Amino acid sequence: MHRVPESRRDLRVIDPDQVCDASAVISDAAQVRHAAAVLDGLGDPNRLSILLALHHAGDLCVSDLAVAVGMSDSAVSHALRLLRALGMVEAHRQGRLVRYRIDGEFTRKLLDVISESVVGDDVELHAHPHSHARSPASGSAREAHA
């Protein structure tokens, strides 16, 4: 039970090796908090729609995202502020436009998993550089990613 905090080592335990392993995977509190924050960001259908749109279409500006997800520009801006604060999207200026994209490998991996159940196999997307659009030749979202 070398991975269990000292304050809990005197408590009754049935399987010390399993308790030790369970403690090990949650020992980095900052990483656990980050994962919880990302999952919280995914918990709202509007935010999830925005994330999926960015994940598959690539960099988009607020007005294009608003049209794509069926929300007002101000609602999309509000959601993007929260998603930026959570470290899930980043903004970059392109001339006078501000475009948004997915930020962080953890977020990308989660969106890959979610996409497998949300994005139907019959959906054919345009191939964009830096997106997860399905390649017409392969039919795979991930294979078209540049």
Would you kindly provide a written description of the structure presented here, covering whatever features stand out?
The chain is mainly α and 146 residues long. The protein is 49% helix and 10% strand. The chain contains 6 helices and 3 strands, in the order αααβααββα. Helix 4 (62-69) crosses helix 5. The longest helix is centred in the N-terminal third of the chain and has 14 residues, at 29-42. The N and C termini lie far apart (45 Å). Pfam families: HTH_5. Residues 127-146 are annotated as: Disordered. This is DNA-binding transcriptional regulator, ArsR family.
Overview features:
DNA-binding transcriptional regulator, ArsR family; mainly alpha; single chain; HTH_MetalResp_TranReg; 146 residues; 3-stranded antiparallel β-sheet; DNA binding; 6 helices; transcription regulation; Arc Repressor Mutant, subunit A; disordered C terminus; 3 strands; DNA-binding
